Amino acid sequence: MVFDGPASPGLTLAPLQRSGRDPCYRSAADGAIWRTSLMRTGPVTARIVKTAPDTVECEAWGDGSAEFLDGLPELLGAADDDSDFAPAEPTIAEAYRRTPHLRLGRTGRVLEALIPAIIEQRVSGMDAWRAWRALVSRYGAPAPGPAPTGMRVPPSAEVWRRIPSWEFHRANVDPGRARTIVGCAQRADALERLTADRAVAGLRSLPGVGEWTAAETVQRVFGDADALSVGDYHLATVVGLSLLGTPIDDAAMVELLEPLRPHRHRAVRLLYASGMAGNPRRGARQAIPNLRAL
Fold it and tell me: Where is the signal peptide (predicted)?
């Protein structure tokens, strides 16, 4: 497919990758991106390659291939509209100047974005990624086609519903997050029918799904350019350091980014993608108990 301007599938798809060992996403040495998904019509493995500054090619295998390819333009951000984005804030404006090719993609698959976001609630990224990898590797189906070794298709809603509590425990997912995952999987059909304008309200009506989890989900599913991840352990600090030179809290971040509506999430992505994001000292979101040892 040919884009109207430069394409950057690596930047667009980056939020879908849960660490370099994600069984559903691999970046190959030849520059190809491998991604698996469970479409309505079945599983799919896709190999996505940038072949020219404005051209991306994709091969797909599995029963969900046709559906995946139909949605490829939106997945790669072809429908992203930043025509009304004209940031006055100088750091954001410079980040936009440096990274005009950033596009926000849309997967259209709610459960595949929601469940890893739930796993990431209130824990360090490394702990969440290990849990995601363990559960998907055990309960996901083998990736169709010539996928890299170890790749899996995300589990179906039915499979998530039937994972025993002790398997969540072994993956170091506490009972609260496990209940939320199972509860969301039980409502999967309704969740997949959500539309962009009702998604946040629909997600936040679910027990265990708050503002941060809903935002992280709609960013990926609908390419929501304004979904700000309020409640993230590092984000307010990053925004404060980037724009003001000092850490701030969530309330101050919301106030600071208010003039950027409806592109607050886009502004945050630009800070990271351009390399202009302030770098806070890293640490766990909270002390993480090793549930597997209990």
Answer: none
